Request: fold
Amino acid sequence: MDVGIRAFLSVPDNVSIFLDNGSFYFLRRNGHTSVDAYMDFVRHARPDWFPVPRDVIPNPSMSKEAQLSCLTTTMEQNRRFSQSGCVPVIHICDVLEEYLTAMIDCQSAGNTKAVAIGGIVPNLLRAPKARPYRHILDSTKRIRETFKSSRIHVFGIGGTATLHLAYLLQMDSVDSSGWRNRAARGIIQLPGRGDRLVAELGSWRGRRLSREEHEILDCCNCPGCRAFGIEGLSASGIEGFSHRAAHNLYTLVRELQLIESNLRDGTYNYWYATHLNNSIYRPLVEYALNMTQPVPCNDAGPTIPAPPARG
Reply:
């Protein structure tokens, strides 16, 4: 807070700094963030993008009344900080239409320069009574149609398959700390595929690398694989974590580059069919492609801001 977050982290000027408000942390925990402390941090640290101090994420298992209560609390924050540079938050849930009505009443949709979408992670993690994946896509598309000229950010998207969905639905930016959490659990991401376990750490279990996937890693150009190979990815301690984290983030950025280039060249439909090997998300990509053509958004596709610094 003394020098600003950009100087403190030595972030170059061409990289935007996005701040998270910690609301997902409190989804399963008691407590809250001090609004005054949050806004004081924003003023001094000066991130480029920041949401309202607190949004209350509805759990899919909640009753409609409880979800409406979450909406009321979140909209109070959206209204209170509408003139403070904070980005309003809207949640994908059973009361989405009520959210949209409240947002439009609060601030003309055409004048809402930025909107953040929350509530996706509990559904993607298949919490009790989680909404079907297609319901999430339909809801995301509904928000894009409502806020045609807004920059839309999505919390909690950071997988090699979900990036395709964010791009096809024309979201402007996404964020997730999943690449780092996976690394801490001994898990890596592979281009166009799911997660693979490469290090035995604690009780975490997962799918092992196939022979074909070993060959994919042999050709990986990420800093960790180039210098240390699979042995570096499977190492324990901070060294192994660092190699896996670098690999996972590199894989995400590379996946986005491939999505962009194939859409630009008109080869995406052929490419994704041969590239995306994920039994859950591949049908969803096909579903997204068959949706009504989304309205144009501000950029060619989403960016991936780094997650906030944590202790």
Notes: Residues 187-275 form one domain. The longest helix spans residues 237-265. DSSP finds 13 helices and six strands in the chain.
